[in-house]
Amino acid sequence: MRALVADDHPLVVDALTQYLREIDPGAEVLGATDMGGALAHLTAGGLFDLVLLNFHMPGMGNLDGLSQARDAYPEVPVVMIGGSARPQDMLAALDR
After folding, report:
1. Distance between CA atoms of 2 and 34, rounded to whole angstroms?
2. Mind listing the pLDDT tens digit for each residue in 12-68?
């Protein structure tokens, strides 16, 4: 598995990276702490099997970052994560 974990809290990135590597010891997991870093990993080459994006990290811009990622890489599964997502944010993410 090749995964990208993007969250503005480095401890969250580290914890999710460790968890994914426990599930799949051969996993390649990259981390980013803002949307710019996440997009840089996505454009650097190679497809991801999973992308985890935080709703409210820097550069997300009211889900514009999600739209950029989905537009550029529609085949990559994206899971939105966050500790304080409002229901309307979740519904808006589903529409992207």
Report:
1. 19
2. 999 999 999 999 999 999 999 999 999 999 999 778 999 999 988 999 988 899 999
Q: Cβ distance 1 to 49 under 8 Å?
A: yes
Return the SS3 of 6: strand
Alpha-carbon 47 to chain mean position = 13
3-state secondary structure of 74: coil
* Dist. CA 19–CA 14, nearest whole Å: 9
CB atoms within 10 A of CB 53: 23
* Cα 55 to chain centroid, rounded: 9
d(CA 26, CA 1): 7
Cα atoms found within 13 Å of the Cα of residue 96, Cβ hemisphere only: 24
Residue type, 30: L
Q: Token digits for 40?
A: 């840089």
